[in-house]
Amino acid sequence: MKTEKILVTTGAQAAAQRRPAAPRLNPRKLLLSKWTAQAPRNREKHFIVTRVIQPEPPANRIEVVEIEAVISRRSFTLPWRDLTDCHRWLQGWR
């Protein structure tokens, strides 16, 4: 006699299986961290955080980082919270 296992998932469980969890980031520890673009442009796939831009006055929270493409050395600024978007960025080089 065979028994079958039926796997029932809720909507939240199914959604969690489809999309990877966003990385938890501390803006003070982002300096020199490595990132991979999910949709590379101009062969720019791998990036490194070269600068964490301090706010004026320093008592305010860090909002912006400078990120540089490894292959072209082109750099730009973006809000550090954009790096938590797993559809645009992956932590580390892949």
UniProtKB/TrEMBL annotation:
Chain positions covered by the region annotation Disordered: 1-22
Start-end of Low complexity biased regions: 12-22
Family annotation (InterPro entries): CHP02450_Tryp
Domain of life assignment: Bacteria
Pfam families according to UniProt: DUF2389 (PF09493)
UniProt cross-references to NCBIfam families, sorted A to Z: TIGR02450 family Trp-rich protein
Protein name as catalogued: TIGR02450 family Trp-rich protein
Organism: Candidatus Methylophosphatis roskildensis
